[in-house]
Specification:
This protein is an alpha/beta fold. 35% of the residues lie in helices and 20% in strands. It folds into 3 domains: 8-84 and 125-156 and 166-293, Glycosidases (TIM Barrel); 330-475, no CATH class; 478-620, Lipoxygenase-1, CATH 2.60.60. The protein has helices spanning 20-32, 62-74, 128-142, 171-188, 204-207, 240-247, 258-268, 292-302, 310-318, 324-336, 356-373, 379-409, 417-445, 452-473, 600-603; strands at 6-12, 37-41, 78-82, 149-151, 192-196, 215-219, 250-254, 275-278, 350-353, 480-488, 495-503, 509-515, 526-534, 540-548, 551-560, 563-574, 577-578, 591-593, 612-620.
Length: 621
């Protein structure tokens, strides 16, 4: 493999602040792995004269940043800060003093919210106050870092072009002009701009106009086949690195986990990237030490020491363990559960049915957990993996027993109620054990740092158990029916709101479900949801879809009082729906709601609140 000029790893300090000592330990792991750069994803974490609003315990002081820079420099690491001035600015706008620069100031409607709802995730790029604030803040942050690079974000900007100042402009013009403003600022500060590249997929013609000294950070977190798959763009596959090279850009390949590290690294080796950047995000539900073997693995590939594969993974794991058996357990944990995560059921009246992939992955968790129980080596790293796997195992067990109760209440259960109740008691004990384990590890690794997200996760588990125990005490199968909807999601990044409404003979309706329904965190298109409904015969069901991207419905069935109901006809179609008649057949085809070409939402200003619906009549089978 090539030895890249820039070998980088990112630490997400915006979503989870770490102690200065923990950040230094992260630097140690990066340098030891052969990395020469650490990207600090900061958002608002540095407190300055321009931005004094966050509490000290939620911020790094300028003195602390200088301490970290000095430590990293001694290790041969370049530190690159990331401050996003347009998208991902919600942390800035938590403060009343900052909300006046929001794109949706005054609670106006945006991409995903109606008017009157506060959604301050993006700033207005045309307001002089926005530019003045970030010009000053970025200059303060840039002065703390000797690196010649400054990362300006510019990813996932969904609320753009909605305020009175912006709504008459083309979105691509707003985006381009904002980049050019901050490009000029950074050039004046002696910095080269870095940006994430995902929004450029929406406006490929903008890329041709951008200055070629901008470094494009191309994040691809999925398995790469021949070429990477575009983000938020109908999974378009294309030779993106070749395109960057034709235009004359420097660029970084940016994977996340084992699968994307292997395959994006192999793809990058066919092209000429400036470097590679291992990203990580949102570590508030786990400890950062579990990343160390993965950093070692990526660093060994990008410095040309190793080739992608099991031998290199085992070698990376062995660096943080004391024996071969421990290394094998860690290596398995590094790669077996990347995208997979079952959430403990907080809504006990609807359940996602897992696909075979999720079922198989879940059955391997106890085996890996058993291996980790005997493992020895880096204590924080091993305990971080143990905690992660324990959470997955408990969450899946909660899902299983909850689904068994769900079926029992709908009159279709095969597990006796007394067995369900015993399982729930065992789940409650496991959650209590997990709480002691997780919070003990938190206090050890993050002393003095609040744990709101971890407390929320544990609270959700407890709440789920308590709700299910209450439902089990009052289980009345004769009063409850069940509606099962088989979905099809062509593009995993689609973000559609689906409303499922039942229609009764007397003209009344019942909203059975409303939300963004996706599969469990495995890359599957076809999946099912089961919803609890009143055991009252209904005549039809309406599926109404709005939002960003497209969503499909393959089939629908209902069960009430031991009677099963299946589709009998299409009675009404409204908006954009392709092949609504496919819902009538239980096969692999799907009716597709909404615009499938996701680029259309940007270039043609398609309303994401436009409802697209189908009403299906049902009959007893």
């Amino acid at each position: 493999m090539p030895c890249y000029e820039m070998r980088a790893v990112q630490i997400d300090l915006a979503r989870q602040i770490e102690t200065v000592d923990t950040v230094k330990q992260f630097f140690d792991a990066a340098a030891s792995a052969g990395m020469n750069t650490v990207v600090l994803y900061l958002e608002d974490r540095i407190k300055t004269a321009t931005y004094p609003y966050s509490p000290d315990e939620e911020s790094y002081s300028e003195a602390q940043v200088r301490e970290l820079v000095a430590y990293a420099t001694a290790l041969g690491l370049d530190l690159i800060p990331v401050v996003s001035p347009v998208g991902h600015t919600e942390r800035f706008m938590r403060h009343p003093e900052m909300k006046h620069i929001a794109e949706l100031r005054g609670k106006i409607a945006g991409a995903y919210n109606e008017a009157g709802v506060e959604r301050y995730l993006a700033t207005c790029p045309k307001l002089p106050e926005t530019l003045a604030f970030f010009d000053a803040y970025i200059a303060e942050v840039a002065a703390l870092f000797p690196s010649k690079f400054f990362h300006i974000g510019f990813d996932e900007i969904w609320d753009m072009g909605y305020c009175e100042l912006c709504k008459h402009d083309k979105i691509e013009d707003l985006y381009y002009n904002a980049i050019m403003h901050f490009h000029g600022l950074l050039k004046g500060l002696g910095k080269d701009m870095m940006i994430w590249d995902d929004m450029l997929e929406q406006f490929p013609w903008v890329m041709e106009k951008l200055p070629k000294d901008i470094v494009l950070c191309a994040w691809f977190y999925q398995y790469t086949e021949q070429y990477p798959v575009a983000r938020f763009s109908t999974s378009r596959s294309y030779d993106v690195f070749h395109y960057f090279e034709k235009l004359g850009f420097r660029y970084l390949g940016c994977p996340w986990m084992r699968g994307s590290i292997d395959t994006l690294t192999a793809y990058a080796a066919k092209r000429k990237p400036f470097g590679m950047l291992l990203t990580n995000w949102e570590m508030s539900d786990q400890q950062i030490a579990h990343l160390y073997p993965t950093i070692e693995y990526a660093g060994s590939l990008w410095s040309g020491r190793e080739l992608p594969g099991e031998a290199a993974v085992l070698k990376a794991a062995a660096k943080y363990t004391d024996n071969e058996e421990s290394a094998l357990a860690v290596a398995t944990a590094m790669q077996a559960f990347e995208y997979y995560g079952v959430q403990a059921p907080s809504n006990t009246t609807s359940y996602r049915l897992p696909c075979e992939e999720a079922y198989v992955i879940t059955r391997t968790i106890p085996l890996v957990e058993a291996g980790l129980a005997k493992a020895a080596g880096h204590a924080d790293m091993l305990d971080s993996f143990r905690m992660k796997l324990r959470r997955l195992k408990i969450s899946y067990r909660l899902w299983e027993v909850g689904y068994a109760l769900h079926e029992y209440r709908a009159g279709e259960g095969t597990m006796p109620l007394e067995v369900i109740q015993e399982e729930l008691k065992a789940c409650r004990a496991e959650v209590e054990d997990f709480e002691a384990m997780a919070m003990g590890l938190w206090k050890r690794c993050r002393p003095g740092i609040a744990a709101p997200q971890m407390e929320k996760i544990i609270g959700g588990m407890k709440d789920g158990v308590n709700k299910m125990m209450a439902l089990a005490e009052a289980a009345t199968p004769e009063d409850i029916g069940r509606l099962v909807v088989r979905y099809d999601l062509g593009e995993f990044t689609s973000s559609c709101t689906t409303t499922v409404t039942l229609h009764y003979a007397d003209g009344s309706t019942y909203e059975a479900a409303k939300g963004t329904f996706k599969a469990m965190n495995v890359r599957t298109q076809k999946y099912e949801y089961s919803y609890e409904i009143p055991a009252k015969p209904f005549e039809a069901v309406t599926f109404s879809v709005c939002g960003y991207g497209a969503s499909g419905v393959r089939y629908v069935t209902a069960n009430m009082g031991g009677k099963e109901y299946i589709p009998s006809g299409i009675t009404k179609v409204s908006g954009q729906v392709e092949h609504p008649e496919f819902i009538l057949s239980d096969d692999s085809r799907a009716a597709v709601f909404n615009e499938q070409e996701m680029l259309q939402f940007f270039v043609n200003d398609i309303s994401r609140r436009k409802a697209n619906s189908v009403t299906v009549s049902l009959k007893e089978w």
